User: Fold these one by one.
Assistant:
Number 1:
Amino acid sequence: MGGMDPGNQEALAKQVDRLAINQIQRHIFVCADQSKAQCCTTEEGLAVWDQLKRRLAERGLMSGENCIFRTKANCLRVCEQGPIAVVYPEGTWYHHLTPDLVDRLIDEHLIGGRPLEEYVFAKRPL
Ligand code: FES
């Protein structure tokens, strides 16, 4: 492995700033827009994803001390009882998410650090 081109490092450093990567507190992956919808319908997964995206932006949680990073996952391999999501660093796995739950998920877990236990089906901190 050779060294990285300095130009590329600069481009990456810009992305680190733009995405507030150094401020991330939690990272949520949501199964949505699957190439093969199995845990839920495409519409159900996208509804949760769209609501999450909208609310994180509206609430200014894309940077700052409560910075939350979000990733749309094509499939989290559970393929049952979705929409499925997982939150790190705790490794908290959620089933049956809905758009109505998104604000609670943000307040209680993504900011507050207290999982919505009634929707958790596995925990595996990494
Ligand atoms: S289709 Fe959602 S976890 Fe696989």
Number 2:
Amino acid sequence: MTSKRIASGLGLLLGAGLAASQAVALEGDAERGEAAAGTCVACHQADGMGMNNPNGESWPRLAGLPAAYIAKQLHDIKEGRRESPSMMPFANMLDDQQIADVAAYYAELEPWPELPTAYHAADPNDEAEWLAERGDWAEGRMIPACSQCHGPNGQGVGDSFPPLAGQHAGYIVSQLEAWREGKRHNDPNDLMMGVAERLDEAQIELIADYYATLPERIAAQGDAAQEEDGQ
Ligand code: HEC
Ligand code: HEC
């Protein structure tokens, strides 16, 4: 499995990340994970959906994230590749087996909504959609489309590229800033640091709001289309 993944295109970039935290390979048990997650609910909530806190630190949604991604983040936080004074004490409470267990538990909660993947041409007048689907290749920017790694509609790809659609806007902003400030330096080949560095403040706000609200906007479009069909 591992050799297959490493052989596949982007997998090459990820080999480094996976090798850095070998403990990710431990088999997790969701039931034990639920017991170990007792302290997490204060912030990530009982349903694992986290919370957007416009005037403070937002708590990411964990429910439905890939188990391997969750485990990697907990190791990264413990080992300082991702600096978070709020999260560190809780990550430190977990040993390798407990990390695998809570990862299995959260991965099994309500999955990320399935969004249409059918290609639709990005609207050049919609700055956020254009950035998400086409990037920003203006001189001095050279920002690849988020969808190149996070998948169409930011649904996530495999274990390594987390979903963005439906994640809290405040949290997305905080992570892009963390990369810019060097507080998060845990991504294979600094892929995200390179992206975050080249976004300007306005683009960060725009793209965070775009992904946070994408699932509801797509659902609303679906409803509108059905109403039209019904006429
Ligand atoms: C005091 C609030 C708080 C508690 C309690 C807490 N967390 Fe967190 N958690 C956060 C914050 C804030 C972040 C974002 C950290 C950052 O900015 O890098 C986070 C991030 C995470 C992430 C990374 C998510 C991602 O999308 O990359 C994981 C995984 C996680 N927490 C798991 C846990 C687990 C498991 C527990 C319980 C053992 C827990 N947290 C307890 C506040 C908390
Ligand atoms: C070249 C690949 C690549 C591109 C392009 C890319 N990302 Fe990422 N992104 C990643 C990887 C890899 C991670 C996970 C890093 C890790 O292991 O912690 C990530 C993580 C993130 C996270 C953290 C999610 C979480 O749950 O903590 C955010 C937010 C994010 N990316 C936003 C964006 C945005 C916005 C864009 C477009 C402007 C973008 N990314 C483009 C590779 C990419």
Number 3:
Amino acid sequence: MEKRTLGRTSLPVTPLCVGTSALGSFPEQYGYAVGTDVAVATIRRTFAGPINFIDTSNEYGHGGDSERRIGIAIREAGGLPPGFVLATKVDPLPGSSDFSGDRVRRSVEESLERLGLERLQIVYLHDPEKMTFEAGMASGGAVEAMVKMRDEGVIAHLGVAGGPIDLMLRYLSTDLFDSIISHNRYTLVDQSAEPLIETCMARDVGFVNAAPYGGGMLVKGPDAVPRYCYAPASAATLTRVRAMEALCKAHDVPLAAAALQFSTRDARVASTIVGMSTPARLDETLALLDHPIDETLWAELRPFIEPGRSGVI
Ligand SMILES: NC(=O)c1ccc[n+]([C@@H]2O[C@H](COP(=O)([O-])OP(=O)(O)OC[C@H]3O[C@@H](n4cnc5c(N)ncnc54)[C@H](OP(=O)(O)O)[C@@H]3O)[C@@H](O)[C@H]2O)c1
């Protein structure tokens, strides 16, 4: 698979990234459990396949099971296979609002231990909307701790991963971050990340787009999943998505292929993170990536995509 450069990190990454929040097993969110065997098999399959980029977080799964299971596969492989890029994120303790510098340092130590690594390639400040920008940037705060760990050589590159675009832009303006993850805001439904993407390009910061299916609606369909970005979708959104689904069907294209390629075909998006729950999802995703879509369908979809420019309606 062709690789793209993740902004000024210079890391070559595939346009697809394996999202591992489900692999930690989180039935409260996903409605099903994922066993250790399935999770480890999914990472094993990733290591054997064309995608070189994996996204996790300290908090995915109960008590860090996403990282722990990725760590099992890494140890089995004798280390992270050459050429692979693994990103994780710093989080407060589950159930706590402690996003202090001390907690962030502990979060990184936990990640290193679970993953069985001595240093981390990319660490994102995860969901910074959990605190104010001022608290995040304060002396003794989360960002200061991350910068120190980067200067100590424990972390190679820093990033921010979150939702609200204005807040992401404020963190970007500090010039401390080499990569950004935005989620659910650059899809067929919502393109409100546009100013963030443009600022990333201007600063040579890698833009990574998570949740191209809006958390499931754009792959399983609006009737099966009438939710967008983990919340009930509005009637207007459901109408738009049903119209896009019908257009795709008329061209014999799965809605999911259009949803995925909307992100991957944009050269500004270094990589697109798709949530994977089984090894089979990897093969399905690769097939959706390769599904032919002609320009006529994109032109027909455009009037239904455009209302999402300023956010979901
Ligand atoms: N703040 C952040 O940093 C942040 C926020 C959101 C997401 N992320 C990252 O992005 C990743 C993806 O986000 P997401 O999982 O919320 O959203 P998503 O990728 O838009 O959607 C995932 C959903 O799509 C379904 N799906 C995926 N491939 C499928 C296929 N081939 N056929 C049928 N269904 C399929 C999955 O179903 P099944 O569950 O049935 O497999 C899952 O419910 C996360 O794992 C995480 O790594 C980061």
